[in-house]
Design goal:
With 285 residues, the protein is α/β, with parallel strands linked by helices. It folds into 2 domains: 176 residues, Rossmann fold (3-Layer(aba) Sandwich); 84 residues, N-(1-d-carboxylethyl)-l-norvaline Dehydrogenase, domain 2 (Orthogonal Bundle). The protein has 11 helices and 8 strands. An 8-stranded mixed beta sheet has the order 3-2-1-4-5-6-7-8, with helices on both faces. Helix 4 links the parallel strand 4 and strand 5. The longest helix has 20 residues. It starts with 5 loop residues before the first strand and ends in an 18-residue tail after the last helix. The structure holds nicotinamide-adenine-dinucleotide.
């Protein structure tokens, strides 16, 4: 069976940074790639700081720290993106993902496997544009990737059964639990979670409650994070794209209509934690 030893993570944003950290700490020789050199450099620093923090708290040993750092490389040169498994975590735009996979297929051998971390784009629609769709699937991590236990695996019609088994084994080696989902809009979690965000946004729009109250109430009922704190963590731009893609794919039902409040936040570049401002402020420490 094909053994995964090297991993390339494309996109050094919120998700790519966490996924690369996880893979390197799980023993995989990991390359983190982003088009923007400053972003990928910043991600490397962030990951190193996180590991140093864990070492100070004695959650990992000094040897672990050295090994983890050795396992992680970063690059802004696409020609470095050669690996047994490529995990794509770039912007939530189908054409950008397809374009990247086509470029990566040209520089990797035929046994390289490709997965997308997309939250909502049809895996089948990406597979249809690739020359070798049998080696392509969805692998959807949750945020923060280092902490969240679940990974949704999404199989396109063309994905080989052998690849699915390899991915299940890989997820297990990352210490996570995988669930195989149908390639339906939003897969499972993002479909079920849509009303959590959209109904809360609608309440704000209609002036029925304020952001803090909604978050406080939902956290008090047992949700780990209120919807507005969660949208800030996810990224309001990403969350809005997912809402649009799911809404569109389901035939635009009024109950899942994306919110103009999010559109306005995006225009103001208030995207959440990553821009230090979203529904809440996150001043740099
Ligand atoms: N944010 C979440 O909570 C979350 C959770 C699960 C899945 N996802 C999915 O993960 C993917 C990434 O989301 P994110 O929140 O990390 O986005 P992000 O906006 O934080 O980061 C995207 C990164 O991709 C880079 N990029 C853009 N085009 C590129 C290209 N062609 N090649 C290389 N790098 C490129 C950008 O420079 C940026 O650094 C999306 O598909 C999203 O739907 C997001």
């Amino acid at each position: 069976m094909h053994q995964i030893k090297t991993v390339c993570v494309c996109g050094a944003g919120t998700m790519g940074t966490g996924i690369a950290q996880l893979c390197a700490a799980s023993g995989y020789d990991t390359l983190l790639f982003d088009l923007n050199h400053a972003i990928v450099q910043n991600s490397e620093n962030t990951i190193h700081e996180r590991w140093q923090g864990l070492e100070i708290k004695k959650k990992i040993s000094q040897n672990d720290l050295i090994t983890f750092k050795k396992n992680l490389r970063v690059s802004s040169n696409i020609n470095d993106c050669r690996a047994d498994l490529v995990i794509e975590a770039i912007i939530e735009k189908a054409s950008a993902k397809i374009d990247l996979f086509q470029q990566l297929a040209e520089i990797n051998p035929i046994n390289t496997l490709f997965v997308s971390n997309t939250s909502s784009i049809s895996i089948h629609s990406i597979a249809a544009k690739l020359d070798d769709p049998f080696r392509f699937a969805g692998m959807h991590f949750f945020n923060p990737a280092t902490q969240m236990q679940l990974v949704e695996l999404i199989k396109a019609d063309q994905t080989s059964e052998g690849m699915v088994k390899i991915l299940q084994d890989f997820v297990l080696k990352l210490g996570k639990t995988s669930v195989i989902c149908k390639d339906s809009p939003g897969f499972i979690v993002n479909r079920v979670a849509r009303p959590y965000y959209l109904e809360s946004l609608l309440m704000i729009e209609q002036g029925n409650a304020d952001i803090e109250t909604i978050d406080t109430v939902l956290e008090a009922t047992g949700f780990k994070m209120g919807p507005f704190k969660l949208m800030d963590l996810i990224g309001i731009d990403i969350n809005f794209s997912v809402s649009n893609i799911v809404w569109d794919a389901l035939g635009k039902p009024p109950r899942l209509k994306p919110s103009p409040i999010q559109e306005q936040k995006i225009t103001q570049h208030e995207l959440g934690r990553k821009t230090e401002k979203g529904f809440y402020d996150y001043p740099k420490k």
